[in-house]
Structures are given as structure tokens and as C-alpha cells.
């Protein structure tokens, strides 16, 4: 077996997230308070050894922590622990390293960002609370804002969101009912089935009497 290697971290630090970048991707860093930073790809030099210190990225203050990293994109959806959903168009300047970043989502002091995703309007956002309550909403239903956004309430009540994911949209509406197309098909199926039932009964009655 090969000898394991590790990234050198400062005392008290941990790995928050990891992602794969192509040769043309800039890096997007996001913290728990909704701040983001774009790091230029040419500043991320591939190393022959992973036992290195790395470079400074998003500078986090006390009570703040890095949440996610991903290839840079123009629009993001985020979900907070208190059940709010955010969608923002972003246009960040490229940086080298060691920057405070720019506020993207306005997260309240008693809240924290759980996860963010690049926008794709043919997908749905699925979130689950600590009480195992699940909600799914189409991305197109989430209002988009340019720059900082206060977000919208995703789930009612004091339920903490513990995780979220992007899923393909099904032919189901937000309230769990069939879509209008499915509803019409079901209606006409039962309608014609009823007509056939009445006609067959009519034939049977005529034969009997």
C-alpha cells in the first residue's frame, strides 16, 4: 500500500470542503455568514506533494467559518440553518489570496449558511430539517437578486435545516399534488371509463328486458 499523506493545517483548523477544478475554473469560497471570495485559477498552483501549507483564502472573523468551495459560477442558491433560501447573481473580482470577501447572502447573527449550489432552473432544491421534515421547491420559484439578498422563508416554524441537495424536478407540484397535465389525463380516463360503464349497463339491461 502507498504511504498516506496529509495537508498541513494550523492548530485548531480542519478541512471544511473540497472540490475539483478544471484548468479554466476560478475558485469560489463561501463562509457561514454568506460572504464569498473568488480566487483566480492562476494563483492555484498544482503541487507535486500535498504535504503543504496552502494559501490564504477567505479571511473569517471570530464565530465565522468556511462552509463550501466550488468552481466559480454567476448565480448561486443558498440555504440557511433557520430555513431561509437565497438566490443571488454574483459578479466578483478575481483575487489572489487573503481577502475578506464580499457579502452575498444577508445571514442573521443567530443563523448560518448550510449549503450553496450553482443555479440550474430545470432542477429542484431539496432540504431536510433536524425533525426529518422534507421540502422540495423548483429553483425557478426562488426569486433572484443582483448583489446582496435577504432571502425568502423556505420552511415554516422553528425547524433547523441540517442538509440540502439539488435534485431533478419531477412532474409533481410543490403541494404534492399531480401537475395539471397529469390531473387532466386522470380526469378524462375516469370520464370515458364511466361512459363505457353506462353503455355496457344499457346493453345488459336491454338484453334482460
Number of strands: 13
> Mean of residue pLDDT?
78
Largest sheet: 5 strands, mixed
Strand content: 25-35%
Distance between the termini: 88 Å
- Strand-pairing-aware structural class: alpha+beta
Gross morphology is: elongated
Helices and strands, in order, run as EEEEEEEEEEEEEH
pLDDT < 50 stretches: none
What is the CA-based Rg, rounded?
25 Å
| Count of discrete alpha- or pi-helical segments spanning 4 or more residues | 1
Instruction: Give helix % range.
Output: 10-25%
Describe this structure in words.
The protein has one helix spanning 180-208, and strands spanning 27-31, 35-39, 66-71, 75-80, 84-89, 94-95, 102-103, 113-118, 123-129, 134-138, 145-146, 152-153, 161-168. The longest helix is centred in the last third of the chain and has 29 residues, at 180-208. It has 209 residues and is an alpha+beta fold. A hairpin with a 3-residue loop joins strand 1 (27-31) and strand 2. It contains one helix and 13 strands.
Amino acid at each position: 500500500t502507498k504511504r498516506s499523506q496529509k495537508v498541513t493545517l494550523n492548530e485548531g483548523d480542519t478541512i471544511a470542503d473540497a472540490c475539483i477544478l478544471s484548468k479554466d475554473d476560478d475558485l469560489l469560497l463561501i463562509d457561514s455568514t454568506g460572504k464569498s471570495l473568488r480566487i483566480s485559477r492562476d494563483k492555484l498552483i498544482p503541487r507535486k506533494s500535498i504535504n503543504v501549507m496552502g494559501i490564504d483564502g477567505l479571511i473569517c472573523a471570530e464565530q465565522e467559518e468556511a462552509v463550501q468551495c466550488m468552481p466559480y459560477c454567476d448565480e448561486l442558491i443558498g440555504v440557511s440553518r433557520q430555513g431561509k433560501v437565497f438566490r443571488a447573481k454574483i459578479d466578483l473580482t478575481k483575487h489572489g489570496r487573503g481577502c475578506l470577501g464580499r457579502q452575498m447572502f444577508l445571514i442573521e447573527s443567530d443563523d448560518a449558511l448550510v449549503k450553496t449550489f450553482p443555479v440550474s432552473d430545470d432542477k429542484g432544491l431539496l432540504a431536510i430539517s433536524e425533525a426529518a421534515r422534507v421540502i422540495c421547491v423548483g429553483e425557478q420559484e426562488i426569486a433572484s437578486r443582483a448583489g446582496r439578498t435577504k432571502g425568502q422563508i423556505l420552511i415554516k416554524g422553528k425547524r433547523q435545516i441540517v442538509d440540502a441537495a439539488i435534485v431533478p424536478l419531477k412532474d409533481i407540484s410543490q403541494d404534492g399534488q399531480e401537475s395539471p397535465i397529469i390531473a387532466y389525463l386522470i380526469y378524462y380516463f375516469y370520464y370515458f371509463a364511466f361512459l363505457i360503464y353506462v353503455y355496457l349497463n344499457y346493453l345488459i339491461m336491454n338484453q334482460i328486458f
